[in-house]
Amino acid sequence: MKIIGILLVKDEDLYVERVLRNAIDFCDKVIAVEGPSSDQTLKILKELKTELGEKLEIHSVMTPSVSHDLIQEYTGTHTWIFGFDGDEIYDPKGLARMRVRIESGEFDKDWCIFGNVLNVRRINVGEGWAQGHLAPPCRSMTKLYNFNAIKAWHGPCRERMHGGTVVFREGYHDGLRRNLHEALPWESADFRCLHPCFVRRSSRDEQNPRNRDCIMDRHTWPILRFMRGWIAFLLRGAPRDSKEQRYGRGPLVTKKIESFFPAAPAR
Predict the structure, then answer these.
(1) Is the dihedral of CA 100, 106, 103, 168 positive or negative?
(2) Which residues contact 116 (CB under 8 A, 6 or more apart)?
(3) How confident is the model over 174-224, as pLDDT tens digits?
(4) Per-residue pLDDT tens digits for 56-79
C-alpha cells in the first residue's frame, strides 16, 4: 500500500511550505504540479526539493490537466491518491493516525474519503486561532481516493480527479464514499483540513482577495468564462458568489490551530 500526494499549486507562497511539510510524512511521495506562479511559490518548492530529495517531484506546467496524467499509472494498484492544494493545511498528527488506519485496511472497501474542514475568514498563527465555517454544513473539498477500486479514469479531466469517466472494479461504485466529516466533530477528527480560502495565500494577493479564482477557473479561457456567466444569468438570474455558496455556510466559529503549525526545521 502506498499513499501518493498530488499537490496542485499556483501563487501560494504564504502557505505552500507549511502545506507540504504537514503532508509529506503521510505520503510515500508528493507530486507537486505548479504554475505558472508569479510569486515565490516555485522557488520555495525547489528549496524544499533540495531537502526532501526523491520524496518530492516538481512539475511546472501551463495547464492543471497534466496533474491527472501524472497519477494515471497508479490506477488499479494498491495506492491511495491524496489530492491537496496550496491552501489546504492538514493536521500532521491527525494524518499520522489516519495513515495507520489506512494501513490497517479500515477503508479498503471505500472509494473515497471526505474529512473535516474549517474554511478560514480570519487567522492568527501567532496566537493559535482561526475563524471560519465548518464542513459540515459546508461541503468537504478533501480528496483521498482508493485507486485499487478502479480499472481506469479516462479524461478529459480539468485537473486531477475532476471530471472524466471512472471505470470501477467489481464490487466498487461511486457511492462508496466515507463521509468522516459528518460522523466526527472537528476536535476529534484525524482527517481535518484548515482551508484559508477567504484570506491572502500569496504575497501578491490583495489584503482581502475575496474574488480570487480557484486554480481551474484561472486556467479557463476568458471567452468560456464569459459564456458560462451569461448562461448562469439566463438560467438563474443575477450570479451568486460561488465561494460563499461552497465555503461560507453555517455559523462563524473560532478554533484552536496550534497543531497545524508545528515548528519547521531550518532550511
Answers:
(1) negative
(2) 134, 135, 140, 180, 181, 184, 185, 186, 189, 191, 192, 193
(3) 999 999 999 999 999 999 999 999 999 999 987 655 555 554 444 444 455
(4) 999 999 988 999 999 999 999 999
Q: Cell 485507486, residue?
A: 147
**Cell of residue 68, nine digits:** 491527472
Closest CA to 1 of 117, 119, 99: 99
Length of the chain equals: 267
**Within 10 A of 245 (CB to CB), how many other CB atoms are there?**
11
CA 40 to chain centroid, in Å, comes to: 20
| One CATH from 3.30.420, 3.90.550, 1.10.8, 3.40.1000 for 2-207+246-260 | 3.90.550
Strands in 149-206 per DSSP E? 150-159, 162-168, 177-179, 192-195
Classify residue 69 as exposed, middle or buried by CB count within 10 Å of its CB (0-12, 13-18, 19+).
Answer: middle
250 CB neighbour count, 10 Å cutoff: 14
Q: Cα(201)–Cα(40) distance, rounded to whole angstroms? A: 11
